[in-house]
Amino acid sequence: MEKLYKSLDEVIDCIKESPEYKDCLKIKKQMDSNNELVELINKVKELQKKYIRSNYDSNIKKELDEYESKLNEIPIYNIYLEKLEEVNKMIDYVKDSLNDYFDKLLNKKY
């Protein structure tokens, strides 16, 4: 079991050392220092929750779309989303590989 944990730690370290992950952290830090951007992101999150709780009220959706549009006009936010997507793809690849491995291992015929 210890060997397994060590291998998983190595995979995690590999992702953390990737340029994509490092860029993601760097950009996130820049975004966090921009109060207007942080407020806009928080407003979008708040409206997303409100929209779902309202059972998909079209008025709330319209307001949400407006704020999301403003957010998507900010270049650093779009760059962050691209980097985050790359990191998530790496994580998904590892997850899928582990699932495949265990599926094959556990479904062997004896």
3D structure, described in words:
- The mean pLDDT is 94.
- Helices cover 86% and strands 0% of the residues.
- By secondary structure, the protein is mostly helical.
- It is built from five helices and no strands.
Features:
110 residues; mainly alpha; 86% helix; 0% strand
Topology:
Layout: H1 2-16, H2 19-32, H3 35-53, H4 58-72, H5 75-106
Helix pairs in contact: 2-5, 3-4
Give me the Rg, rounded: 20 Å
Strand-residue proportion: under 5%
User: What best-fitting shape do the alpha-carbon axes yield?
Assistant: flat
Q: State the helical fraction.
A: over 70%
Going by helix content, strand content and strand pairing, the class is mainly alpha
Order of helices and strands: HHHHH
Number of helices: 5
The low-confidence runs, each spanning 5 or more residues with pLDDT under 50, are: none
Distance linking N and C termini: 23 Å
For the sheet with most strands, the description reads: none
Overall strand count: 0
| Mean pLDDT figure | 94
Kindly summarize this structure in a few lines.
This protein is mostly helical.
